[in-house]
Design a protein that fits this description.
Layout (H helix, E strand, L loop, with lengths): L1 E3 L2 E8 L5 E6 L5 E12 L2 E6 L4 E5 L3 H6 L9 E11 L2 E11 L2 E4 L8 H11 L1
Parallel strand pairs: 6-8
Antiparallel strand pairs: 1-2, 2-3, 4-5, 4-7, 5-6, 7-8, 8-9
Length: 127
């Protein structure tokens, strides 16, 4: 990942489209908050349906990072997610910045979209 100015640029692998790699800039104006239900979870990706029926592919952090902070999502989990929305070929993606599950809340990315799990890894290596 590279940072250009104040925008974070990252790549997303969309398996649903035959391993297409997109380069995405973090856009703070596209950050929104939703409440809804987890329909499906696999590693760091979930299918999330909002209370009003909108459906997103929810991009989380690595499962071990979430679990370490007490966030274990299962189908049927009711959550609140704040993140950047991106429409790719009429499929909506939500890149989680913060997730609330029950009484637990976890920041996944900072305000510039930089993944906090990577920042934690860098700190451990340099300690």
């Amino acid at each position: 990942m590279k940072k250009f100015g104040s925008l974070l640029v990252f790549s997303v692998m969309l398996l649903a489209y035959g391993r297409v790699v997109l380069t995405v800039e973090w856009d703070p104006s596209s950050v929104k908050e939703f409440q809804g239900t987890i329909l499906y979870v696999e590693r760091n990706l979930a299918v999330f349906k909002t209370a009003d029926g909108a459906q997103f592919e929810l991009h989380l952090g690595p499962a071990p990072y979430l679990k370490k902070h007490g966030i274990v999502l299962l189908p049927g989990s009711k959550v609140s997610v704040k993140g950047m929305v991106l429409n790719v070929r009429d499929k909506y993606h939500l890149f989680a910045q913060r997730i609330k599950y029950g009484v637990k809340a976890l920041n996944i990315r900072d305000k510039d979209g930089k993944p906090l799990w990577k920042l934690n890894l860098r700190r451990k290596v340099s300690d």
